[in-house]
């Protein structure tokens, strides 16, 4: 039987050469995905890493674009084969960053952006000390709940799990290089741009 290490992923120090890893993290519903899409529209030269997940697709999500949607068995196989740069379990599903494609883009000098949750972001910080990590904060907890509910894409159970986790995630904001409050969207986007491009 395959025994999975708890919250494992990257464990050894690795040295990315020319490019750089950028980690965007923060609680679910804070607006990371929306900020990321806007950032990619403004900066098509960035490489966005499409994650692998065992979550079911939401309405409008496209396999290979939003995520690679796979079964839990397949995910566990990929973990055992060392295929992830980091991975974590979040709200009952696995999420992971494909290793080789990300390392290839860093080697070719790209800025590679990961949009991932707290445990994965911690793994990346431990493995790639040169990564730039940005934590996105909500203007308030009630506003975070409004955004998760307003997205109207998750079950009540999934919303409750995300909110339970959010408080602990927000308390970890200081672990990261830069904290940005996503209150006014344009301001937050400009702040991210400033962090990336100076
Ligand atoms: P995450 O990727 O962090 O889970 P999303 O990008 O899916 O969050 O955003 C959650 C919801 O919040 C979406 O409906 C999005 O349109 C909305 N949203 C994002 N940024 C803002 C903002 N600055 N003000 C108001 N609503 C926002
Ligand atoms: P959602 O189900 O709302 O798309 O994502 C849930 C959480 O998982 C979000 O905080 C998102 O940033 C995070 N996530 C997405 N992809 C990855 C990944 O590859 N690794 C990790 N650790 N988290 C991810």
UniProtKB/TrEMBL annotation:
Subcellular location, record wording: Cytoplasm
Family, per entry: Belongs to the guanylate kinase family.
Enzyme nomenclature, EC number: 2.7.4.8
Annotated gene: gmk
Alphabetic keyword roster: ATP-binding, Cytoplasm, Kinase, Nucleotide-binding, Transferase
InterPro entries, A to Z: GK/Ca_channel_bsu, Guanylate_kin-like_dom, Guanylate_kinase, Guanylate_kinase_CS, P-loop_NTPase
Top-level taxon of origin: Bacteria
GO molecular function: ATP binding; GMP kinase activity
Catalytic activities: GMP + ATP = GDP + ADP
Protein name stated in the entry: Guanylate kinase
Domain (Guanylate kinase-like) ranges: 19-197
Keyword Transmembrane attributed: no
Sequence positions that bind ATP: 26-33
SUPFAM superfamilies documented for this protein: P-loop containing nucleoside triphosphate hydrolases (SSF52540)
UniProt keyword Transferase, yes or no: yes
Organism: Cylindrospermum stagnale PCC 7417
HAMAP family found in the cross-reference section: Guanylate_kinase
NCBIfam families, per the entry: guanyl_kin
Biological role stated in the UniProt entry: Essential for recycling GMP and indirectly, cGMP.
């Amino acid at each position: 039987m395959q025994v999975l290490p708890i919250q494992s992923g990257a464990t050894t120090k690795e040295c990315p050469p020319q490019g750089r890893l950028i980690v965007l993290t923060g609680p679910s519903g804070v607006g990371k995905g929306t900020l990321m899409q806007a950032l990619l529209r403004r900066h098509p030269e960035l490489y966005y890493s499409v994650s692998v997940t065992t979550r079911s697709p939401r309405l409008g999500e496209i396999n290979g674009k939003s995520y690679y949607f796979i079964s839990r068995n397949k995910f566990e196989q990929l973990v055992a084969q060392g295929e992830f740069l980091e991975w974590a379990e979040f709200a009952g599903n696995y999420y992971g960053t494909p290793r080789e494609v990300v390392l290839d883009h860093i080697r070719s000098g790209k800025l590679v952006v990961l949009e991932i949750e707290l445990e994965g972001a911690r793994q990346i910080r431990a493995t790639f000390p040169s990564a730039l990590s940005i934590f996105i904060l909500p203007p308030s907890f009630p506003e975070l709940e409004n955004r998760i509910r307003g997205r109207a894409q998750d079950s009540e159970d999934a919303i409750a799990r995300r909110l339970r986790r959010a408080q602990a995630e927000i308390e970890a904001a200081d672990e990261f290089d830069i904290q940005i409050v996503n209150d006014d969207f344009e301001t937050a986007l400009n702040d991210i741009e400033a962090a990336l491009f100076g």
